[in-house]
Amino acid sequence: MSEYIGLDVSLKETAISVRRGGKRIWRGKCPSDPSLVADVLRKRAPAAKRVVFETGPLSVWFYHALSAEGLPAICIDARHAKAALDMAPNKTDANDADGLAHLAEVGFYREVRVKGYDSMLSRTLVAARSRLVKITTELSNQIRGLMKTFGLIIPRSKGGKFEADVRRLLADQEELGRIVLPLLEAWLSMRARAAELGQQLVANARHNDACQLLMSIPGVGTITATSFIGAIEDPSNFKTSRAVGAWLGLTTRRYQSGEVDYDGHISRRGDPHLRGLLYEAAVVILTRSRADSSLRTWGLKLRDKIGFKRAAVAVARKLAVIMHAMLKSGELFNREEAAMA
Q1: How far is CA 295 from CA 103, 142, 216, 218, 338, in A?
Q2: What is the pLDDT of residues 308-326, one digit of tens each?
Q3: CATH of the domain at 17
């Protein structure tokens, strides 16, 4: 008889519950290590049919490690599981594991596609660079704020010009320099590390045919193309290209109940970083791009009707659909047919 397992994964310990024939036959805990969990399951549930756990910080690691151990690992949406797990009178790790095992047995869950190792590497590279760029900006703003207190106004500048301006203004400020110069050195270090990761991104994109394909779209650069490919992985993961816009949270919510039926703001589901990148690309298409295309023409007409921000969101959604269609077909960006997506 098949056994169904629920895992409530935390950083230190994982609660395990095993069900068979509609009854719980065992539950316990072990350290949060997939190899140790696999050893326990081979002993307690040799005929495991489903091993269910929720999305979380360790879900990617657990999924691939348990799959490598030959176990039928299934990662489910934590938002869907929460509704069932909240039915328990007491919120404990053991009760959560029991609830997940019950969901595994009845099959009432929504499985989540877990990204592959290569996709996670590219997403980690983009995230690390973005974080370093953010830290660099925060440090430069901090330096400007500290020096402004003493009447030292740094002109609007970037890069080496910013460093030269700071050092020039601090030339006669020895005491203030002992405070600000360490921040400037940290800014230089973070800026250099961000540049190194940026070079890695560019080098990877040069050797990736899919990235080069997407970068044929005006306004889509290395970071946007890499992030999109890392999120989509295989175009066949989506039945239609139009589904990508909804998956990224770029379609409006709808609420219907009896006589009430209205559309709201966009759902903002999915990857917020990629959604932001697509919005930025849409803004570039509408404002800075010199390349004429049916997509830009459509977006500009929409801007006149509904305003710039809503038009940019619409262009971002259409851009996501176009990019998926391009990955699926392998064709370069068609400036004449883009607005038909």
Answers
A1: 45, 40, 14, 10, 5
A2: 999 999 999 999 999 999 9
A3: 3.30.420.40
Per-residue pLDDT reduced to its tens digit, 178-212: 999 999 999 999 999 999 999 999 999 999 999 99
CB atoms within 10 A of CB 63: 21
Q: Which of 106, 133, 157 is the last residue of a domain?
A: 106
**Could you tell me the CA-to-CA distances from 70 to 47, 63, 219, 241 in Å, in that order?**
12, 11, 44, 33
Give the number of other Cβ atoms within 10 Å of residue 258's Cβ: 5
Task: Round to whole Å and give the CA distance between 158 and 244.
Answer: 37
pTM, to two decimals: 0.83
β-strand 260-266 against 73-76: which pairing, if any? unpaired
Which of 144, 174, 207 finishes a domain? 207
Contact call for residues 50 and 4 (beta carbons, < 8 A): yes
- Can you give the residue range of the structural domain that contains 183? 117-207
> Considering its fold, how many domains does the chain have in total?
3
Q: How confident is the model at residue 241 (pLDDT cuts 50, 70, 90)?
A: very high
